[in-house]
From TrEMBL:
Name of the protein: TetR/AcrR family transcriptional regulator
Residue ranges constituting the HTH tetR-type domain according to the UniProt record: 22-82
Alphabetical UniProt keywords: DNA-binding, Transcription, Transcription regulation
Pfam family for this entry, one: TetR_N
MF terms (GO), sorted A to Z: DNA-binding transcription factor activity; transcription cis-regulatory region binding
UniProt keyword Cytoplasm present: no
DNA-binding region: 45-64
Keyword Ribonucleoprotein (UniProt): no
Domain of life: Bacteria
Length: 201
C-alpha cells in the first residue's frame, strides 16, 4: 500500500440508502483531506468530518461505513494528492533501481505520506471491494514499476539472475510497508541495506 499515482476512478456507489448529493459528497471528501493533513488519521473522526463538511453524522454513515473508506475515496478521486512519481529511467538499470527504491523509502518516511499509507491499509482491511480499487490506484502501479526496473537490472546482469522480478518487488514493498505500518524509522541507509540484502549479486 505504498504511494505512487496510478489509475483514478470513482469508487462504487454504496448499495443502501438514498443517492448521494454530489455537493455533500465533495464537501465530505474535502473536509477529510483537510482534517487528515491537520490532525492525522488517528484523530480523524466521523463527527469531525461531518461538522467540517456541514452535513449530519447520519449522512456520512449512510454513504461510508468508516473513516477509512472516506480516506480511500478521497485518494481515488484525487482530493488527497499522491506523491509525485520517482525519476524516469535513465538507461542505467542498476542506478534506476536504486533511485526508485530510495525514492520509495523517502516518500514513505514522510509523516504525511506515512499517515496516508496507514489510512489506506485500514480502508483495504475494512472493505474488500474497496481494497481492489485501492490496489489498482496505489499499490499495483508501484509494484509494476518496481518489478519492471528489477527485470531491466536483471537483464543487464546487475542483480542476481535467479530473481523473479515480481516476487522481489513484493518482498521490497512488504519490507517498506511493514516499517511504515509499525512506525519504524525509514532511512536512506535502510534503503541501501534493503537493496544489498535482497538484490545485490
Amino acid at each position: 500500500m505504498l504511494l505512487l499515482p496510478g489509475y483514478r476512478g470513482r469508487m462504487s456507489e454504496p448499495a443502501r440508502g438514498r443517492p448521494r448529493s454530489e455537493r455533500s459528497r465533495r464537501a465530505v471528501l474535502d473536509a477529510t483531506s483537510t482534517l487528515l493533513s491537520e490532525s492525522g488519521y488517528e484523530r480523524l473522526t466521523i463527527d469531525g468530518i461531518a461538522t467540517a463538511a456541514g452535513v449530519s453524522r447520519q449522512t456520512v454513515y449512510r454513504w461510508w461505513p468508516a473513516k477509512s473508506a472516506i480516506v480511500a475515496e478521497a485518494v481515488v478521486e484525487g482530493v488527497i494528492a499522491l506523491p509525485s512519481t520517482p525519476p524516469a529511467p535513465t538507461g542505467h538499470p542498476l542506478d534506476d533501481l536504486r533511485s526508485f527504491l530510495r525514492t520509495l523509502v523517502a516518500t514513505s518516511a514522510d509523516p504525511a505520506n506515512a499517515t496516508l499509507v496507514r489510512a489506506l491499509a485500514a480502508a483495504a482491511a475494512d472493505d474488500a471491494p474497496g481494497a481492489s480499487t485501492i490496489t489498482s490506484t496505489v499499490t499495483a502501479p508501484t509494484r509494476d514499476e518496481l518489478a519492471s526496473r528489477i527485470a531491466a537490472a536483471t537483464a543487464a546482469g546487475d542483480v542476481r539472475a535467479s530473481l523473479d522480478p515480481r516476487i522481489a518487488a513484493d518482498a521490497l514493498l512488504g519490507a517498506v510497508l511493514f516499517r511504515t505500518l509499525a512506525h519504524i524509522e525509514l532511512t536512506p541507509e535502510y534503503a541501501d541495506a534493503l537493496f544489498d540484502g535482497l538484490l545485490a549479486r
